[in-house]
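Obj: model holo form, ligand = pyridoxal-5'-phosphate.
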Amino acid sequence: MQQVSEIPVLDLSPEIEFLWDELNTAFQRVLRSGIFIMGEDVSIFESEFAAYLNVKHAIAVNSGTDALVIGLRALNIGVGDEVITTSFTFFATAEAIETVGASPIFVDIDAQTLNLDITQVEERITARTKAILPVHLYGHPVDIDPLAKLAEKYEIKIIEDVAQSLGGEYKGKKLGTFGDVAAFSFFPSKNLGAYGDGGLLVTDDDMIAQTAQMLRVHGARKKYHNEILGYNSRLDSLQAAILRVKLPHVENWNNARRLAASRYHELLRGISEIVLPFEAPYARHVYHQYTVRVLSNKRDKLKSFLQQQGIQTMVYYPMPVHQLPYYRKQTLSLMAAEKAADEVLSLPLWPQIQIETQQAVVNQIATFFGGNA
Ligand SMILES: Cc1ncc(COP(=O)(O)O)c(C=O)c1O
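Output (holo structure tokens):
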């Protein structure tokens, strides 16, 4: 029998309830316009998003994965090139690099931030390295300054994967404004989620923007005058209209995520087998996930115990990318990423989560470890 979760890991219903009337108005506008792909809502959303991040160009596409693929292509990265990235990410990061014909070069992670260990990047740079692709995992920024120095020294590009960290900041500046290109995902669970697939890339470079705009519509600058091989990667008008309703709330929601995270910090502090998420001094963490580490090899047992109590948790990710079946021929060993994959557990979190719900989660964690919270 399927276990019914009483506390889901993510609950979008309070947000939908809160936005109900605005969403209905937006739906009706799109339905009445008769334009369902691209159209005015998409171009206005692009302008609003560019203004939010204070960047020159925002190009909406079909998914975060496409934003990475199109971003890499627009940077002219392809067959024979190498791109340095983290192994502790969603497969899409590496898949995008493979899709354009380049090779991902996996670097281990920093044990505190769980992001790319920047001290290991320089030794992996070769004559074939074209770019570094840092992933701001769970909402926590990568330490960008040292990467930017390396990029300058070796004349290579930076493409940021901001899929999980929209609104996060590095030294007071928004993520996605540091790379030559940055890719965002609007998968429904993201900090700014559509109600379907969606993605976007940003850049300050006019040429990169022009190429990306062509690539998303079959490589055509002018309709039916296709110049290069591209993709069908247009954003739906309905998704753009939904994203326009949601974008003005994203700062408040990120603040609410931070508040909920600080409540978890307080509630979990006494449980010695749980390592709390880290926030570096340079970081504004936006807690796409509230991910703890469970020590003493007890993560899977704790997860099953919580499931039995009706509490859903998630493991992002049970295997680092270099250990996935696709990479079975690689013999790479990245100890910190492999350890993290055995220990991480993401707890229920969404902006409107109530303290009573968080207390209930922590009570069960404390019960599992034989104490009281
Ligand atoms: C780190 C990371 N990169 C890329 C993606 C791909 O985004 P999408 O699912 O919108 O294609 C995701 C989303 O799941 C992600 O978490």
